[in-house]
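Just curious: can you write a single protein's sequence together with how it folds?
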Amino acid sequence: MKNVLRAAAASAALLLAAAPAAVLAATESTGQPQHFAFRTQLSDRYHAGAYEGTLSLNVYPNGVVQGLYTPFDGTPQNVAGGMTGSQIWFDLGRGADRFHVIGTLRNGALHATAQIPGPDVWEFDSVSGG
């Protein structure tokens, strides 16, 4: 009986020791990323005008998305998110200036909607010439 308890305790200790490594591995980028560089346009569906910028993304084989967004007239902002198939999501900025982008990245083109507080719907898309 003592041997069974020791074996169970040893197994539990090994599992607990390995758990942080497994969690860390799931959140880190692994392998060589695929790189995308876009000229972007953030526009409100119901009003004229658009905000232009550049977006540089690295998409890793495990689905981690990392990068940098630079508005045409602003400060660069970190990008972090994920991708499954052609479905992509990421967050830009921090705090009150942060917004969430969801959409598709297919055939080198980004088509997405930015979730910004308020009633308007904002498109966040790549534009030609990027």
The chain has a mean pLDDT of 78. Residues 5 and 11 are 10 Å apart (CA to CA). The chain is about 20% helix and 50% strand. The chain has two domains: 1-28, 34-127.
